[in-house]
Structure to design on (439 residues):
């Protein structure tokens, strides 16, 4: 059995939905996970924000505009009157939920109900579309299968139990459709796996049933060795290990949701990254295989803040790091890159909503400095302790570019550089030209 996840642009128009129907038209038994139609989640977030600000008229205008968008969408999607009727009742039903939230006080609970509507709409519309084409499919309710715990972590055993039972109920069916992104929390409320979380749903379901493979369909041809929007030339990387993919996704490669690698890796289910615009292209496969390449790929992440703490006392005396890290833990702020010296410690964060409070608390342990508008560049490859020369190569590429931090040896798979964002483009291009073999 396979799990195929299609992102927002892959179901972004009636034509794209038709293309998805063609892609899934083979003999493999499969679960198809869909995102919301492109742009919809952003608009639903906007509606929630307007309601939270008390701007009801503004929210209603956005809601009705979105409703009109879907009316046009279904008018093009379906051929027969009866299918159009079904599509109409889907959007009427889900927009009734949306409209019902205008006159109640808006809390995070209502906002989560709002943002869940996108996937509920796209999956039902697609299901009716398949029916119109004469293809039998069954809708699986993500809200009954996917649950997160008190730490917002998906509970794989729960998913496994529910999904296995649902599939067993339909042993004669070979095509299932479900919603990415949405789930329930321990209180039973509607919740979600955070923006971009449909990928995560895909790998969780794939892991839960030990799928033969998980396919993540987007609108680019697999994972590239560098960001094609920034550097002059890139190439798709055909094979990446789970560890490499995890580092790349975490440190900026936009193609995958950072936490989605884990479930697939734990159960050793290969993940393929494929392109809906070019279904026969090879894409990228992520497995446990390790390549012998020196450098696999480079990714970058902006809006990084560097916090440096300098102590006059013995900084790294035992217990010091714990005290510093506890401050970050208290404010649920993850630290990404760390470098240390005997008297100072530099750390990066990208979640800055509690920055002021963190700084105040850190000041009791030393002199604190903050630098913003920094970027992390993550170079992924074979940095194992047995190899020599790769760090030299990358520093040679950066010989004319000042950087703030370098961290190597944290894992065998990456070295990270932190520099001012104004140097990022130059650095990415220099690394790109110097670290890969260009014929
Ligand atoms: N629709 C959600 C979002 O836009 C989830 C996803 O597309 O992965 O973030
Ligand atoms: Mg996505």
């Amino acid at each position: 059995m396979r799990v195929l996840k299609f992102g927002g642009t892959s179901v972004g128009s009636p034509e794209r939905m038709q293309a998805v129907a063609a892609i899934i038209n083979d003999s493999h038994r499969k679960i198809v996970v869909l995102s919301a139609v492109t742009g919809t989640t952003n608009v639903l977030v906007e509606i929630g924000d307007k309601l939270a600000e008390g701007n009801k008229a503004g929210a209603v205008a956005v809601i009705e505009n979105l409703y009109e968008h879907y009316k046009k969408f279904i008018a093009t999607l379906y051929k027969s009157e009866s299918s159009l009727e079904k599509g109409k009742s889907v959007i009427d039903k889900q927009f009734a939920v949306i409209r019902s939230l205008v006159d109640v006080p808006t809390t995070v609970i209502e906002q989560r109900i709002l943002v869940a509507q996108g996937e509920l709409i796209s999956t039902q519309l697609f299901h009716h579309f398949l029916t119109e084409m004469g293809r039998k499919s069954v809708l699986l309710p993500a809200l009954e299968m996917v649950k997160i715990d008190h730490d917002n972590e998906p509970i794989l055993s729960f998913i496994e139990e529910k999904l296995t039972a649902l599939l067993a109920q339909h042993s004669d069916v070979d095509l299932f459709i479900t919603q990415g992104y949405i789930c329930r929390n321990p209180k039973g409320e509607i919740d979600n796996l955070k923006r971009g979380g449909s990928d995560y749903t895909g790998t969780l379901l794939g892991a839960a049933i030990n799928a033969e493979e998980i396919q993540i369909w987007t609108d680019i041809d697999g994972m590239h060795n560098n960001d094609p929007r920034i550097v002059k030339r890139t190439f798709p990387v055909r094979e990446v290990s789970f560890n490499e993919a995890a580092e790349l996704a975490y440190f900026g490669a936009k193609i995958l949701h950072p936490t989605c690698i884990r479930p697939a890796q734990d159960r050793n289910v290969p993940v393929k990254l494929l392109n809906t615009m070019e279904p026969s292209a090879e894409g990228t496969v992520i497995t446990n295989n390790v390549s012998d390449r020196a450098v696999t790929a480079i990714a970058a992440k902006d809006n990084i803040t560097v916090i440096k703490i300098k102590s006059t006392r013995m900084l790294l005396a035992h217990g010091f790091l714990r005290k510093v890290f506890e401050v970050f833990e208290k404010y649920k702020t993850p630290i990404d890159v760390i470098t240390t010296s005997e008297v100072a410690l530099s750390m990066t964060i990208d979640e800055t909503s509690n920055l002021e409070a963190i700084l105040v608390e850190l000041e009791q342990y030393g002199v604190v400095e903050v630098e913003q508008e920094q970027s992390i560049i993550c170079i992924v490859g074979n940095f194992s302790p047995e190899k020599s020369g790769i760090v030299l190569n990358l520093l040679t590429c950066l010989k004319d570019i000042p950087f703030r931090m370098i961290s190597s040896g944290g894992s065998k798979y990456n070295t990270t550089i932190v520099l001012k964002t104004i140097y990022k483009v130059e650095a990415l291009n220099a690394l790109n030209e110097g670290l890969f073999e260009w014929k």
Observations:
- The longest strand covers residues 295-310.
- Residues 310 and 344 are 4 Å apart (CA to CA).
- The chain has a mean pLDDT of 94.
- The two ends are 40 Å apart (CA to CA).
